[in-house]
Design goal:
Length: 399
């Protein structure tokens, strides 16, 4: 039996059910494999009183410290955060809070390995916990954890130290693996581990009635992701000034929502922009399948799940040549890789609207991604780390 402790600050809860659905789905897949047992530790950061009663944090206080979430045993221990002070101390705070809990868990569930699901702050915290408990650990890189946190002066050293200390590393794309190696992380320890896709849920439909169900008609574009500059929704809104027949759905919440609303009004396209806010992951198949083109002009990515989900719905993608985009947009039917500006987006979208690729051909680009394969590869990776530590058991050290 392989016993895995999954450590993830990106894991859904009742307050934020759309947080890290890809981590949730991967973990469910791993736990479903014969000979594997999994428990999840999803720490919850809370500031000291009275800040803990602020509306941003108050709902988190009510989360259960242990629950069964979609069949998984999930622990949600609290750790201390200090808003506006900085993130550099977060991994140490997580490790201090979690170590007593993990010791208790290990009495009942003697886990063999810690599987950290994001490089920051999960990775450095896992490093400290694994050292204290004498178990191997793995870290998975997903994109912004490398492109953002590994570039910040106050967190870079911790990211790199955790990468060197890890028994194994995962990256969601070959391009992200190369970026990790360029940081000085050990290339031989990095394994590419692609995301999965539920091809039963994400599938093509007849677009006309799908649009009608949303109260829309005509050419429809969609962008899914946190509303922030790095995701590039501003460029999609700007493109509407020339794509005069098209409408745009934005799915997601974030700091740029008022910016995008003002921009749409300024450009006179507000009647063709619908911002839906954060939506449950279960709503995405219908939204993506209704769209003619998914527009995702990100400045950086690892391998965006929404690329694969859109393709599985038969919806081509217009994005930039970042991260693993070339691994996904690997054929003309899958979409276009463009420069990060509105004019390039206009040209690519107009081309796809003028000659829509067959939905089955678009979907073909997603069919190589599978949650079953994802779980199989993750199990093999973690078993190898545990096996590599076996000769060390019982070894006599010291005088």
């Amino acid at each position: 039996m392989l016993r895995v402790l999954t450590l993830s600050t990106l894991f859904p809860n009742a307050v934020r059910p759309t947080l890290g659905p890809f981590v949730e789905r991967q973990t469910i897949g791993l736990a479903a494999r014969a000979g594997v047992a999994v428990e999840v530790v999803a720490p919850v950061g809370l500031p000291p009183w009275p800040l803990s009663h602020h509306p941003h944090y108050a709902p988190l206080r009510a989360l259960p410290e242990r629950e069964v979430w979609k069949g998984l045993a999930v622990h949600r221990p609290r750790y201390r955060v200090w808003p506006l002070v900085g993130a550099a101390a977060t991994p140490a705070a997580i490790a201090r809070a979690l170590l007593p809990r993990l010791k208790d868990i290990r009495e009942r569930f003697p886990f063999d390995v810690i599987d950290a699901e994001f490089f920051w702050p999960d990775g450095p915290a896992a490093m400290q916990l694994a050292r204290a408990l004498g178990v191997p650990f793995s870290i998975k890189a997903r994109g912004s954890d490398i492109h953002y946190w590994a570039m910040r002066p106050r967190t870079r050293a911790q990211v790199i130290a955790a990468g060197h200390a890890a028994d194994g590393l995962l990256a969601v794309s070959a391009a992200l693996r190369d970026d990790m190696a360029a940081l000085g992380l050990p290339a031989d320890s990095i394994r590419v581990h692609h995301t999965g896709i539920d091809l039963e849920r994400f599938r093509p439909v007849d677009r006309k009635p799908a649009k009608a169900a949303l109260g829309m008609s005509g050419p429809l574009l969609i962008a899914v992701g946190t509303l922030m500059e790095r995701k590039g929704q501003r460029l999609a809104v700007e493109a509407l000034t020339e794509l005069t027949e098209a409408s745009l759905i934005l799915v997601g919440g974030g700091p740029d929502r008022p910016v995008l609303e003002r921009l749409a009004r300024k450009l006179g396209v507000q009647e063709r922009v619908r911002i839906l806010g954060v939506r449950p992951h279960e709503d995405l198949p219908a939204l993506l399948a209704a769209a003619d083109v998914a527009v995702q002009p990100s400045a950086s990515e690892g391998l965006a799940n929404v690329w694969v989900e859109a393709l599985a719905c038969g919806t081509p993608v217009v994005t930039c040549a970042v991260g693993g985009a070339r691994n996904v947009i690997d054929r003309p039917a899958a979409g276009r890789l463009v420069a990060r500006n509105a004019q390039a987006i206009v040209a690519a979208v107009a081309d796809l609207l003028a000659s829509p690729p067959p939905q089955a051909e678009v979907r073909g680009a997603a069919e190589k991604f599978s949650w079953d394969r994802n779980a199989e590869e993750l199990e093999a990776h973690l078993r190898a780390l545990v096996a590599a530590r076996q000769p060390m058991k019982g070894r006599v050290t010291g005088p």
